[in-house]
Amino acid sequence: MSADGALVRAAVFGTGRIGREIIRGCAADPGIDVVAAVVTDPAKQGKDVGELAGLPPMGLRATTDLESVLGSPGVDLVFYCGLGDPPTVAEHLGHFAERGKDVITLTGMIHPAAALGEDGAGRLHARAVAGNARVVGAGWNPGFLLDVLPVVWGTSCVRIDRVFAQRVAEMRDWGAGVHEECGIGLPPGQVTDTDSNPLHESVALIADALGIRLDRLDNFHEPYVSSIRREHAGRIVEPGHNAGFHKRSLGISGGHAQIEIEMYGVFCIDPATDPVTEGAKVIVEGDSTVETEARGNWFGDSYPVTAAKAIRAVGPLTTLPPGLYRPDQLPLSGPTRPADRT
Fold first, then answer.
1. Structural domain of 197
2. Fewer beta carbons under 10 A from the terminal one: N or C of the chain?
3. Does 256 fall in a domain?
4. Rg for the chain, CA atoms, rounded
């Protein structure tokens, strides 16, 4: 629902795993109506959008014709569910925004200046303003778990000496495109992915939100080499091959890491052989130490949660003036539905 209480008419760009979850989530939200779905696979052209998402038929056909969707006055907002490096994603977002569509991306852009540089972020902001549109990156991780959540805890500290956040993720149910991007099943020497899960954007967001001045950002990436054979849904990882990743991003200030974000993504975590357990934790050290850990079935399949975070960003986003935003800059809640008013 928009700031004026109107139904938000949304288009979904990309109907891979996260796109399907967005469609399902919107179908359960009375304030958002999916009115278009853009696909890049010609085999999906003309397919019923509901059936693509595992729902009953919706009477809405998927299309490869992006321009017809962007030219429609009946589309208010686009959920970007495609892949791509930051410049590619930014070009898509800018194009959507120039056509007057608000945009929520599930691919990066949590801290646009860290992703694109100050000039690149400035250009994307200008394109959004010119189109009278709003753009934000949203989701669970990135977009909440390893960035906005540490900020929430950090704002309760008088003095902050160190912020640490870690997530260990089970990758078996991640989309095929992400598995391929991360090199699951390849020999370690053939793994080239270093850009997905942009932890440095999360570090930069925390620093900006908590007023921590950083001298530089250091990033580290290494494949997670499996010692056992792993298999799920037809994907196989042989011993000695890549079963995921270990990524760290450090925010260096005064010669030491004041902010450290770490993430393990592991395909088919095996408790008997893997030294990590699925879950997350946040530690803020300063005048006092705050430590919190998260466990639960959220972590078994994070796609529905990721989609829910993005869908719930719609209302708050519509309350803001045109421009480019970080997820921590969104209001906590959007407009109140008429049924909620007393």
1. 148-299
2. C
3. yes
4. 20
Cα separation, 7 vs 2, whole angstroms? 6
* pLDDT, tens only, 91-112: 999 999 999 999 999 998 999 9
| Same domain, yes or no: 154 and 206 | yes
**Residue 3, in any domain of the structure:** no
Task: Tell me the pTM.
Answer: 0.91
- Please give the Cα distance from 61 to 79 (Å, whole number): 17
Asked whether residue 164 falls in the same domain as residue 269, the answer is yes
Q: How far apart are alpha carbons 214 and 200 in whole angstroms?
A: 12
pLDDT given at position 295: 84
What is the greatest pairwise CA distance in the chain?
61
Distances (CA, A) of 250 to 72, 145, 195, 258, 306: 44, 17, 15, 8, 24
pLDDT(178) > 90: no
| CA–CA gap between residue 150 and residue 140 (Å, rounded) | 13
Beta strands 77-80; 8-13: pairing state: parallel
Please give the tally of structural domains in the chain: 2
- The pLDDT score that the predictor gives to residue 338 is 45
